[in-house]
Amino acid sequence: MTRTDLFRFLPLSILLMSFSVAHAQVTQSGLAPTLPSASAASYYYIAKPGELTMQVNIWGFVQKPGRYEVPSSTDLVQLISFAGGPQQYAKLDEVRIIRLTREDSTINRKELTVNLESLEGLTDGMLALSPGDTIFVDHTTWVTIRDLFNAITTTAILTSAIAQLIIALIR
Fold this sequence. Notes:
Layout: H1 3-29, E1 43-45, E2 53-60, E3 66-71, H2 76-82, E4 95-103, E5 106-114, H3 124-127, E6 134-137, H4 141-170
Parallel strand pairs: 1-3, 2-6
Antiparallel strand pairs: 2-3, 4-5, 4-6
Helix pairs in contact: 1-4
């Protein structure tokens, strides 16, 4: 390989390295599928000995999502606090509580939406949790836009690298 060939393939090498970095960023942002690790599921026990507890789940944009066994008096705000609080782009104005109730042999699904941006007007009953509740804290639209931009950037880098390779092979 001559010195000229090295300089011709240098931009291609830089582009391929950029693609690797961009791909890693997209993978970390959650667009690319990843295999669950052994510690993907988390279980937390937060209660004093002998205290009556209930199990609830919290998913989404909180610091420590997982299954929590908490005192039966725990409310929504306390649970989010136990989970380390919301992440940076958490959408607190639409926190969903999914509750399954049984009547005879029928299981009903009830979904409640709570605005934690403004605690005014919320009653204790609106914040109360029941055993088996699943709480979902979604993300703002900004996260979707950011992830989409990362995917477009990665695609552009890959397309440019392929074009550089084709041009180098034609010459």
